Amino acid sequence: MPATIKDIKEETGLSLATISKYLNGGNVLPENRKKIEAAINKLHYEVNEIARGLVTNSTRTIGVSVYDIADMFNGILIHHIGRELSRFGYGMMVVDAANDVKKEKANIRFLVNKKVDGIIMVPSSMDSSVLADAVKAEIPAVLLDGKFKDRTFDSVTINNRESAALAVGYLIRHGHTKIAMIGSNSSYTSNERLKGYRDAMEDAGLEIRSDYSFVGELSMEYGYKAMNEIIRMKDRPTAVFSANYELNLGVVMAMNEAKIIYPDEISVVGFDNLILSQVLKTSLTAVEQPMERFGVKGVEILMKRIHEKKKPVSDEEKDFVNIILNTHLIEGSSVKELAP
Predict the structure, then answer these.
(1) Before 2, cis peptide (omega within 30)?
(2) pTM
(3) CA torsion sign, 185 to 292 to 78 to 106?
(4) DSSP 116
(5) pLDDT at 124
(6) In whole angstroms, how far apart are CA 85 and each of 54, 65, 109, 293, 323?
(7) Which of 186, 210, 208 is nearest to 197 (CA)?
(8) What pLDDT digit, counting tens, does each position of 253-268 carry?
């Protein structure tokens, strides 16, 4: 028969009120905390989370919404978010938008109905209406790796525009003037990287050719398709900047299939220093994002908001937080030095 709170009372000699206060996250004397925790371990007591949620109006669950759970970037983010949440005694409920804005909005409604205490979102949409149900329910939300164009939320991003300009500038410093970009304009992040590419080209006085700009889905399939088009060009660029990890995969697949030797025949700089750059024979030069910091800072902001929600907070006091993390370029061997 499962242990009950009365069993803990008998084991510790403490009052039900003290034990209940501890179980519901309240502060108790250190010596009482030790007694209760020892009794819980000895009796194998398990908290009834549903009952506790009714009492505390808290499920100690955070909803995590990502644009595509199959994307390795999102998988790594979820890992770091989950690990950080566990430090605060929270679990997570993950939902996948599958790059579908309608599904993303339905997922947020699902999380709201599940009474999550907060939401961490890697958005697919640039429209804040996807979070309308969370806003109405006064559930705090933090955006990772993205922003909305019409409304401000707490967010953690990287310096996307500067990072892309740094990557393209690296190619320019190695003598490349004919540089193609494979990217997207479907999100805040991808738009910023597109701007960074243009910034670097314009600052160097280089032509931004329309036939060298490939803007489509942030997917391996699009990276593969775009790179094949580049390979078939008569006036082929000498270098390619790939603005996303999934695009990187498609780019490398297309070159391998066509037996293109890089960087001898074409140089490549990618975005995201994930597992790909470590397994390639020719290591990929790529922008590395601080994946763990994304999770740590996102959870940190959300915990602060959840705490504030228990107290009246005026609009003046609740200034939105926008943390911008730095990246750095990992130099591989995928860029060839061209003669001036």
Answers:
(1) no
(2) 0.80
(3) negative
(4) -
(5) 87
(6) 21, 15, 22, 13, 19
(7) 208
(8) 999 999 998 899 999 9
SS3 85: helix
Both tokens of 17, joined, read 């009120």
Residue pLDDT, tens place only, 9-54: 888 898 888 887 777 666 788 888 888 888 888 888 776 655 555 4
- Of 283, 302, 295, the C-alpha closest to 325 is 295
Rg (CA), the chain: 25
Rounded Cα distance, 337 and 194, in Å: 24
Per-residue pLDDT of 117-154, as tens digits, reads: 999 999 988 899 999 999 999 999 999 999 998 899 99
**Spatial distance between the Cα atoms of 62 and 90, rounded to a whole number of angstroms:** 7
3-state secondary structure of 256: helix
Model pLDDT for residues 56-81, shown as the tens digit of each residue:
566 889 999 999 998 889 999 999 99
With left for phi above 0 and alpha for psi between -120 and 50, is residue 116 left, alpha or beta? Answer: beta
In order of their start, the domains of the chain are: 5-56 (1.10.260.40), 61-158+291-326 (3.40.50.2300), 160-290 (3.40.50.2300)
pLDDT value for 119? 97
3: helix, coil or strand? coil
What does the block give as tokens for 42? 């000895």
